[in-house]
Amino acid sequence: MNITFFIGGLTKGGAERVTCNLANYLVQHGHQVEILTMSESASYPLDERVTRSVLLKDSERKGLLRNTLKRRSRLKQYLKSNQRDCYVVMLPITTIFLLGMHKYTTAPIIASERCYPAVLNQITQRLLLLLCKRAKGWVFQTPQAREWYGRATGDSKVIIIPNAINEDFLRPIHKGNRQKTIVAIGRMSPQKNYPLLLHAFSKVTAEFPDYRLLILGEGKLRQDLEALVHQLQIEDRVEMPGYVTDIPERLKSASLYVLPSNYEGMPNTLMEAMALGLPCIATDCDGG
Predict the structure, then answer these.
(1) Which of 16, 34, 127, 222 is a Cys-bridge partner for 51, taking CB atoms 3.0 to 4.6 Å apart?
(2) What is the SS3 string spanning 61-91?
(3) Which residues pair with 83 in a beta bridge?
(4) Cβ neighbours of residue 173 closer than 8 Å, sequence gap 6 or more
(5) pLDDT at 12 over 80
(6) What backbone phi and psi angles, to 5 degrees, belong to 263?
(7) From the CB of residue 265, how many other CB atoms can be counted at a distance below 10 Å?
(8) Handedness of CA 205, 211, 212, 213 (dihedral sign)
(9) CB-neighbour burial class of residue 32 (10 A; exposed 0-12, middle 13-18, buried 19+)
(10) 231 to each of 191, 195, 202, how far by Cα in Å?
């Protein structure tokens, strides 16, 4: 099959990582795969046989309205000029973009909901419910996400498929002493609720001073989190090295994995920590 994945970018996120994993798997099994993105960003490894196209290069950005119109024009041209057997789209904005322009292609569109749509703004929610029936099929990670769409999907074929675990995390469980490290992974955004984790750790560390907290990820809230670490006077026990590529190595001998999210789809990092045999604590958050 000739398949195009459509997503915002390929940097530091669960949906982005799943897209790259799927693309790599499919080309290894004889399919032709292209990833079409809204922006140039990339951080996950891709098989050299996977091709990439970008709707708008970083050097072309000149304001939100102009950027949106340019991307829309180029997506229309892409759909009209490329013969594909199937489109797979992930994340709300790209899903709305593609379903809104479905008339420019005869290829079926498969949409994949990667989070919990009830947390999105009202305009985005309404657009998703209005357009979702245009997809040939929908893939959900959890029953909760499926239930949110209800009957709005119309005649679309619907299926629930849990996330797969990256094979890098399928290894023998660590034996022996574990490092006194508590790990959290994910972009520094309101969704991940790292302030909750930092406040909790500041209370725990008084009784267990040998433990340190390691937050792996990057994002727009870094300065706020660094300020909170300073305010709580735990600078010597908290590390935030940013985005790293050796997550399995950092996780395998840790003592604990914590996911403090406000909402989730089906968090890859939690499943990967469980696969490595770590004790895990997670909030009972919306969506998953």
Answers:
(1) 34
(2) CCCHHHHHHHHHHHHHHHHHHCCCCEEEEEC
(3) none
(4) 276, 277
(5) no
(6) -155, 160
(7) 23
(8) negative
(9) middle
(10) 22, 11, 10
Can you tell me which residue has the tokens 């968090």?
A: 267
What does residue 274 show for φ and ψ, rounded to 5 degrees?
A: -65, -40
12 contacts 43 by C-beta, under 8 angstroms: yes
**Short-list 8, 54, 3, CA closest to 27:** 3
Tell me the residue type at 198: L
Nearest to 3 by CA among 24, 17, 187, 241: 24
- As a whole number of angstroms, the distance between CA 259 and CA 183 comes to 9
pLDDT digits (tens, 9 = 90+) for 145-192: 999 999 999 999 999 998 888 888 888 888 889 999 999 999 999 999
Q: What is the model's pLDDT at position 246?
A: 87
Q: Where are the alpha helices (DSSP H) in 169-264?
A: 194-207, 222-231, 247-252
CA nearest to 79, candidates 100, 99, 57, 101: 101
pLDDT digits (tens, 9 = 90+) for 62-100: 888 999 999 999 999 999 999 999 999 999 999 999 999
Instruction: Report the first-to-last Cα separation within the chain, whole angstroms.
Output: 32
| Whole-angstrom distance, CA of residue 150 vs CA of residue 152 | 6
Q: pLDDT tens across 218-269, in order?
A: 999 999 999 999 999 999 999 999 988 888 989 999 999 999 999 998 898 9
Q: What are phi and psi for residue 76, nearest 5 degrees?
A: -60, -45
With CA atoms as reference, report the closest residue to 38 among 20, 23, 60.
60
Instruction: Assign residue 34 a region (left: φ > 0; alpha: ψ between -120 and 50; beta: otherwise).
Output: beta
| Residues in contact with 28: Cβ distance below 8 Å, sequence separation at least 6, in sequence order | 47
